[in-house]
Amino acid sequence: MTDQPPAIAVRDLRKCYGGKAAVDGLTLTVPRGCFFGFLGPNGAGKTTTIRMLMGLAPPTSGSIEILGLPMPARAVEIKRKIGVVPDESVLFDRLTGGEFLEFAGRMYGLERRVAAERAKELLELFELHSAPRKLIAEYSKGMRKRLTMAAALIHRPEVFLMDEPFEGVDAVGARLMKDLLLDQVRRGATIFLTSHVLEVVERLCDRVAIIHEGKLVMEGGMAALRSGSETLEDVFVRLVGADRAAERLDWL
Amino acid sequence: MSSQVTAILWAQWRTLRNFRPAEGRSGRVISVAMSVIWYGMWAGIAVAIGLAAASFDRLRLEAALPWGLMGVFLYWQLAPLMTGSAGLSIDTRKLLLYPVLPGRLFTMELMLRAVAGLEMLLVLAGTAAGLLRNPAVPFWGPLLALPPFIAMNLFAAAGMRSLIERLLAYRRVREAVVLLVVLTAAAPQVIAYFGVPPGILTYFSGLPGPIWPWAATARIALGENPLPLLALLAAWVGMAWVFGSRQFRRSLNFDQAAASAADRRNGGGTPWSETLYRLPGLFLSDPVAALLEKELRSLVRTPRFRVLFLMGFSFGVLIWLPVVHGSVRDGSGGNYPVLISVYAVVLLGEVLIWNVFGFDRAAAQLYFSSPVPFAKVLAAKNLAGAILIALEIAAVLLVCAALRLPVSAPRVLEAYVVLLVLCVYLLAAGNLASLYYPRAMDPENAWGRGSGGKLMLFLLVSLPLLSIPVLLAYAARHAFDSEVAFFAVLAVSGGAGVVLYGVSMETAVRLAERRKEAFLAALGESAGPLASA
Predict the structure, then answer these.
(1) Which tens digit of pLDDT belongs to each residue from B283-302?
(2) What pLDDT is attached to residue B200?
(3) Closest by alpha carbon to B260, among A161, A139, A205, A51?
């Protein structure tokens, strides 16, 4: 096991938009079987990073390896082994939920019969089966997120890349998704997720990293963090420098 | 065929099958009926073309076939854009998440282009069948010519779609394209006014040069010496392949976030526009000044408004050119600045008069939760509308002057006074319509319908009635042959309009309070990424 490459290894990753670095020299290692929380304030570079990991945006410079395979050189092999929940919609609006899941399964190389069976089971698991003829265009935001999560699971991936997976999902759906993700980690899968909800990250993740203005400002295990007197929220606020903002507004 | 290819074709088929113009069973029935009618019509056209191709003599075939094939080419390049914008075509970029080789993705894109251009495949099949039955055409002609022509169309369509999709990711390009499409609709009027350029007439009256792919295809199909023409067609296929595959690859690597970042860099205010936005604050006090400033900033930054504003003085002028030309020539002209300005106001009315909360959408609830009287909100919106309409009229007059149409000072004054009076009446009715028939509008969507059916009906009835006070002034001018009578009636109409506006404002405020819940629900219901639904 120890000889295995890490689930994700990122070195000196940069992504520039019009001369401005959205991600600036990010170096990060995510061990296998880890539940990894990737945090940062709005506009810090979380989504840009995860899009590069998913192979949706080419990096300006730096390297990415997933399960020891370089991205984008061996993108197809990597994509067979990862499940993704991007922030923007990757759903085809004019398909039904069941049709989309079956399609996703077949794209990952499942036999049509297997894809259809799993699609049906996942629809039930995520409680999306009550309106089988409903088009995705008519889904609410939470339903779309649940469907995207179901599609990420259909081929039993080894690594999950998830951008705000709980956003817009109700408490029951979020609980179900969290339980499923913890099950996946128990079976050896690796999860890399971004979230604004620090309580969720604190409860689920083994390790966290905080990115601010494109640069990594902290990486470490949750156990070490918990042993100190600060909560994750305290650490986050201290590192991204927002704790004194209110003090400057004396009228407030 | 690999399982991924069949999965994508299956998804495309389901996407088309699931297109439902209405809810429930009736939607499915309409969808099936529309498909049958549409493809039935194209099958009929294909049969008709086949019969014609079988019976035409060689001369007629030589004259008709190249132009027909050029039509096929143009349709094939435009059809994918239409199906794409209607959400009927699978977005190949979404397939990037899946383990598909980039080369195979291009093959899939070509298959999707073939499906999207099914009508043209039917037409070409009909043409081929007809030519094969025609004794004047050698049997190898259509068999040799049409397959490379189809391949060239597919490659070019894939490239064109990729290129245009990438360009349309930029907001300003989207607006320019919409404007261009709208201006194209005014082409008949422009042709009626300026005539057809002689170069175009000459080109279409003869046969296209053999260098063009449709001409080369037609000549091969009709059995002309095929080797040099085949080499030419192969070169076209090669160029189309290079264009298609390159554009497709660039689209796959295209970063939407980068395009959005570029749009953001172009957004915001310049010091020049900032001064203009802050002008109302010099003459008005808050909250009206703040509301007015917000309206001007928001509207000017809204693609849909910008397109309508540009249409007013471009399309609006072009579409009326023949009428203006006629009236100027027979000496009765002069009223055309009013005519064009009224037309421009009708165009802008969708966002400035009849549905003033459309772009606010769910944010309209702020007006009810903030300590600002609703009358002031409406007044600020109306003031913003009046300022922008005044600017639109100025732009119309400038364009008319640029086109060397007679624009005199009295006519400019007339245009402004008539539109001022008319707008008082329109705004009075518009405030009520905005509260009775609110409809969320997507500010990013530069092209779309902003009015619901009920509002359309309301406009149909109310617009003629609201125009009566202005028409009375023209009647007075005609009856008494006097400018004094004209302006006197306008002044009286304007006074009555102000009274009507006051009454309408009071009614609108009461209506807003009474219909608050339904009003906010309607605005939060639909259209665009920020709607609350």
Answers:
(1) 887 888 888 888 888 888 78
(2) 67
(3) A51
Nearest to A28 by CA among A17, A39, A41, A16: A39
Q: Is the dihedral of CA B157, B162, B163, B168 positive or negative?
A: positive
CB within 8 A of B427, min separation 6: which ones? B353, B382, B385, B386, B501
pLDDT at B368: 79
What are B318's two structure tokens? 């072009």
Which one, of B179, B409, B141, lies nearest residue B306 by Cα? B179
* B21: closest chain A residue by CA: A94
Structure confidence by residue, pLDDT tens digits, B315-353: 777 777 777 766 666 655 567 778 888 888 888 888 888
DSSP track, A172-225: HHHHHHHHHHHHHHHTT-EEEEE-S-HHHHHHH-SEEEEEETTEEEEEEEHHHH
- B-chain residues within 8 Å CB-CB of A54? 97
**What residue has token string 């295990």?**
A221
Among residues B517, B363, B493, B331, the alpha carbon closest in space to that of B435 is found at: B517
Which range is least confidently modeled, B19-28, B118-127, B197-206, B501-510? B19-28
- Between CA B378 and CA B375 the distance in angstroms is 5
Tokens 């810090």, residue located: A44
Which of A67, A50, A68 is closest to A59 using CA atoms?
Answer: A50
Nearest one of B441, B404, B192 to B307, comparing CA atoms: B441
What does chain B come to in residues? 533
Cβ–Cβ under 8 Å, residues A204 and A37: yes
Confidence of residue B87 (pLDDT cuts 50, 70, 90): low
Q: Is the pLDDT assigned to residue A180 strictly greater than 60?
A: yes
Q: Which of A17, A55, A77 sits opposite B96 (nearest CB)?
A: A55
**Spatial contact of B327 and B334, defined as CB atoms under 8 Å apart:** yes
The pTM of this model reads 0.69
Predicted local distance difference test score (pLDDT) of residue B267 = 52
Distance CA B66, CA B233 (A): 13
Q: Looking at residue A85, what DSSP letter applies?
A: E
Contacting B residues, span 414-443, partner chain A, CB-CB under 8 Å: none
Tokens of B372: 């600002």
pLDDT at A29 over 90: yes
Whether residue A161 lies within 8 A of chain B, CB to CB, comes out as: no
Q: How many angstroms from the chain centroid is the CA of residue B203? A: 29
Q: How far apart are CA B332 and CA B158, in angstroms?
A: 53
Residue A165 has phi, psi (to 5 degrees) of -70, -20
Cα torsion angle, A138, A144, A146, A149, sign: positive
Helix axis angle, B102-116 relative to B58-85, nearest 10°? 120
Top-level class of domain A8-248: alpha beta
Q: In this complex, do B4 and A106 lie within 8 Å of one another by their Cβ atoms? A: yes
CA dihedral B277, B261, B174, B523 (to 10 degrees): -60
Q: How far is CA B171 from CA B53, B174, B352, B361, in A?
A: 45, 5, 22, 21
A96 DSSP 8-state letter:
B
Q: Which of A133-137, A155-159, B169-173 has the highest mean pLDDT?
A: A155-159
Q: Find the mean pLDDT for residues B493-508.
A: 90
Confidence at residue B528, expressed as pLDDT on a 0 to 100 scale: 46
B283: tokens are: 């003459």
| CA atoms of B245 and A75, how far apart (whole Å) | 19
Most A CBs within 10 A among B98, B170, B250, hence the mutation to make, goes to: B98
Longest dimension (CA), chain B: 85
How much is the average pLDDT of B468-487? 85
Answer whether A17 sits within 8 Å of B87, measured CB to CB.
no
Higher pLDDT among residues B495 and B169, named by residue: B495
